[in-house]
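Final report, closing paragraph on structural work. Over the funding period we assembled a curated collection of sequence-structure pairs, and we close with a single example.
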Amino acid sequence: MRFGKNPQTGAEWSLTSWRAPNDPATGDYRQVLDTKGLPASVSWQGSVKKYSTGPWNGLWFSGIPEIGSYSKEFSVQVVVRPDEIAYVFNAAAGAPFSCLVLNQDGVLERQAWDQANGKWNVWMQSPRDFCDNYAMCGAFGLCNEDDAATQFCGCVDGFSPASPSQWSMRETSGGCRRNVPLECGNGTTTDGFIMLQGLKLPDTDNATVDMSATLEQCRARCLANCSCVAYAPANIRGGDSGCVMWKDDIVDVRYIDNGQDLYVRLAKSELVNEKRRDMAKIVLAVTVSLLALTSAGIYLVWICVLRGRGRHRNNYAHKKIHGFLSASDELDDEDLDLPFVCFGDIVSATNNFSEDNMLGQGGFGKVYKGMIDDNIEVAIKRLGKGSRQGAVEFRNEVVLIAKLQHRNLVRLLGYCIHGDEKLLIYEYLPNKSLDSFIFDAANKKVLDWATRFKIIKGVSRGLLYLHQDSRLTIIHRDLKSSNILLDTDMNPKISDFGMARIFGGNQQEANTNRVVGTYGYMSPEYAMDGIFSVKSDTYSFGVILLEIISGLKITVTRFTGFPNLLAYAWSLWQDGKAIDLVDSYLLETCSPAEALRCIHIGLLCVQDNPNSRPLMSSVVFMLENEFKPLSVPKQPVYFAQRYSEAQRTGENTSSSVNNMSVTVLEGR
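Its predicted structure, as stored:
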């Protein structure tokens, strides 16, 4: 496949989007190879540049370094000749068929043919997230996808927002300006450079390129040109070589894994300040390291004492828990690498499981607050004795959560097996669960719009990690508001993995005769047929999203004629009154555009057909990219309220709603 242009004739090989998936008329987007400066693949919507891959660096486009991960299956290169500048993509022998598609929303997709299932799968797509939007942080702005607290945008060191008031309103396209002007003129300068690492390089439309220069020559040339504001190596194949220099400003810069080095010009006084800040960081780092080493030493002493005191019990516990794990092929042979806590310490920590220490009660047991190891607060989950479901939950939570690490997943600190007792020790989260806020008339006032939006995005990222970014594919199967815990800063953490299932290899879905979950949050295909997949969790997320927006439970029936929250939300959406769904406590702090977009996304997630629901990667992208067009949702299936009553009794029930047979088994 070739993609580019002929400089001599002006002929161009590019992509144009369709108007709609079923309408091949010319759409709004074009994908072309921009040959100014260094070649880059660029998306345009009319005359507006929407996305750039970043310049070609000899190995890949600097904004998508993951291309290098697929070198065994596919080879990529940029060819530069008098009659052709082109991006060339070749498949190795045995690689799947692939194609490049620019869809109706302006998203560029590399699709690979799945021979076994007879369909095209999206292998890579761009833009991927908020920071991929072209020049979102303006001139000298730096986008950081992991820094939602600053709305992702910051300034290069030595620069500050050009309009602080606009930045406070999340309008960052105005970019940043220098704190101190450069000192350059009459052939002399005292300026210098700071090195920024791990970046997608700036747009090179305003850059000059010399592939024969060394990096040292590049630095000297930039200093000699008062208009030059930054430089970088043009080619990283086989080491840094070549020279690309930017004049006046730099735009479309972001942090990215396996990114490149960029040297930005600053005045001498700013460089001195940078050195002072660096020295302060070093002193702080050394101090923190010494404290950490001291703490680690104390911790190791404690571990040795604990192991010496309970080595026999620990070995016994490991043998016993591996007995629970015989059905878990993926993880049975792996070490738990999780501290075993003796039962006596837990009894002391919870004041003998005092009612005063109880935080709550779930389907499989009670949760207590405890104090261990020098007044460290923990939450201790005590599973019901002799419960078959409790053993399954214990197996899943110990082995599964111990191997998952994400800021939006609850952290498991230890476990205990003592006779029939099975206990799990978690980090203590003082704000308890999400449902205790959004459904409580007094507590819901604490969650303003910004906090609720942060919670929505945090839960979506946690689910994306489970589905795609961890080394396993995990289906939670019991996602609900009461299983979303909140830390001191109201950051959400997904909990309760007792019903979670692991998918291996290319597995897309599974079927079970034992449907477990919570009424209202279960997807139709799971509740009726026992079929579950990542799209089942997407459905549950959609329900939670609508609950967060409205402050209403999924089973709400106080609106005449509406069996539940989904029916109410859909009715308002159809009537063009979706904004009426927003919790009245949010009216003063709410961003109407964000709220309506969230409602729209929520309705997309709860569509009846799982194939119509978005993947969580798309949900995260839609939540963080306000400019991405959204498809039109289809009417969700409504479950009658009488099933809620049946599930509370734990009875197996079967009936009909909308000509569909609905079976709810072992409901909680």
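Residues 306-334, 640-668 have pLDDT under 50 and may be disordered. The chain has four domains: 2-128, 150-266, 286-427, 435-664. We thank the funder for supporting this effort.
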